[in-house]
């Protein structure tokens, strides 16, 4: 089976940039070369760590309280707002209000800080799309966004909002060409995930914190099994991976205490902002031995949960689950079972090394089959148009973010820990297609007047074979650059990854 | 039989005969012009919060401070959440029939699998590639289905006579571009029909302002469906019902939306309301007890609301299994005593006029043992 460069760029990449298909070379080799070393990430330099963001968030909340200013919605997409309460902060004391003038000043300051946090978040989104539209390792970027969606965090949950994009940068990018176990550990201890799935406030029923609360007759918080369930169901074994409700509970107990620093701790730290927002709260940890999937784990504080996750990463069900999802993402909605099996074997025989898994994908015949095809998600449709049309993302991604919302795939908002769906049936509705045609016109309206002719562009990003017949005639005869690019972006050839 | 057993299955068991002659009780000509709107609340609504069994002493003990303090008492046992004033009025008008302890056949605790089952109409996740509403549309000779959703939901897949709609992008489309695209899509076997439908549905452009939430979605569905010859089967979905922590304010807000949504649907259906059934369902229930963080976790028995002029409401339906420790499923959540498919089958037969054989063969495969719910409909 031939491995064409066009297939490498469209099926495994983010859609070609003009020039990407030029020169000789085998598609397979091009992809394997991209896996050899991580891509430069210049676009992301200077973005704050989650620990810094969290410190700023607490300062903002404290200023807002002082000013008795109710944090107003910060237009993010249509109706999202900044967090007003954060998981780790629920117990923070409320500051008494001062004089009227002070209140006004504090309110103004809170407002300013809120806008600053909002601006940082937009910077992060812009960096993500600048990188995707420019990178010359598009296969690695596809993989990164795949894992980001595998470990989905939805920013419609308020206290997750500022951390989802940071999680992709801090927990996924460093491990995308490494071992799955390391990525899993980094994700499950990241503030975005700990807050999204409520683990940051989960407390063991027999923990010191629970006993103290009882003694002081304070409202007693307790165990929350949300993160543990999704680790098993979505992140590792898969829903049919062979775990039971007891395993969920035991894993939930093993990771009690996995949390983030709170506002009091942030204040106490003063200028010394911690490197990492993760905090292990020994007092919240459920003491004792745990048993997950029949294996016993001795009490060991934070190490207990880590040991369970390490074993989950090595589990054959995990190997199958990850392989199936990757094959479905790149090859076909119903991936060939033989391909999935080969990938899972590669994963297991290389100790969970993700590069071995990707190599098995790229080297398999099935991955290059003519029949293999995927319908682009709205996100990939937009990114491939940015690349094909060499459209600049610039520093303000607001228009882009609004466009993705309208297309039904708002940035970091899958609204469910299962992430955005990944089959043609999920994205190819009549209404969805209509909005793509509208979006094609909007994107084409931004084409640089000096861009190459639509026909040339189409050939350079889709390859000769895909540009023929009525399509070629329409592109050649286009009345304007804008009309031609709209036809290219709206065409069926541009909706498929072939 | 359990002394707590109550509701439709017991009271109307004798009328199961009716289902052999689904159209016998209705005036001729009436049965072809009914409307059915399914509202799916994704995330697992806490039915014990929407419909608190306030008179059950175990309820207060299980919920503590998380119990609904001032329910609208509609029954000696059950009340509606206080955010549901208009819904309560429909109950008094005998147009609302809550059904307790009902769930899809799926018995584990994954949202996604449970929703998949509810929509695919089988007893297994991935049990079908299309949805039971889509198969209903297919089984009806010329009727259409309609979803208010950005993406065609699984429930309505399976027929070419379905369409979906969501507020559009503000800009129109150049007719010349459409003309050029037409032959390209006509040549694409997998997208040709989609393209044809997309150009047809574009005429529905709506002046969208502000957030588009459940009440607006239900109004749009109702208005679209109420037209003469409009789609008889509709689908609306909503997210945000997963309430693991501090659920009281979250659910108060969401239930108020649902309340406005039901009122908007009644208005939107207008003169078609007497011929309409709206079913509000969710993929499963939640734990009976409040959890350590003021919320509830995934449980089994949920609830459903039937609403509309064609519904014989003003009473509580379903089998209430009780909340005692021994009555709970796995000691933690309300036991499901009826299968959502029995409700759906009842609606498909009595309201949409589908034959029972077609239902068992095509719409709900392997459901022979699941009797259609009977006696819930007016007339």
Outline:
Chain A has helices at 5-12, 27-34, 50-66, 100-134, 138-150, 164-172, 180-188, 191-196, 208-215, 226-235, 245-254, 263-269, 302-314, 316-330, 337-349, 354-363, 378-388, 398-406, 424-427, 430-444, 454-462, 469-477, 481-490, 492-495; strands spanning 258-260, 278-280, 290-292, 295-297, 374-375, 496-497. Chain A has 498 residues and is mainly alpha-helical. In chain A, helix 1 (5-12) packs across helix 2.
Q: Key terms for this structure?
A:
heterodimer; A: 498 residues; mainly alpha; two-stranded antiparallel ribbon; 24 helices; 53% helix; 3% strand; B: 379 residues; 12 helices; 10 strands
Task: Write down the overall mean pLDDT of chain B.
Answer: 86
Report strand order across the widest sheet of chain B.
6-5-7-1-8-9-4-10
Supply Rg of chain B.
21 Å
Mean pLDDT of chain A: 90
**End-to-end Cα distance of chain A:** 14 Å
For the termini of chain B, the CA-CA separation is: 29 Å
Name the poorly predicted regions of chain B: 1-30, 205-210
Helix content of chain B: 25-40%
**Percent strand of chain A:** under 5%
Beta fraction of chain B: 5-15%
Please state the overall shape of chain A, judged from the principal axes of the Cα atoms.
globular
User: Major beta sheet of chain B, specifics?
Assistant: 8 strands, mixed
Question: What is the N-to-C order of secondary-structure elements of chain B (H for helix, E for strand)?
Answer: HEHHEEHEHHEEHHHEHEEEHH
Q: How many helices of chain A?
A: 24
Helix content of chain A: 40-55%
Spell out the helices and strands of chain A N to C. HHHHHHHHHHHEHEEEHHHHEHHHHHHHHE
Give the structural class of chain B.
alpha/beta
Overall form of chain B: globular
Query: Could you tell me the number of beta strands of chain A?
Result: 6
Largest interface: A-B, 58 and 58 residues
In total, the number of strands of chain B is 10
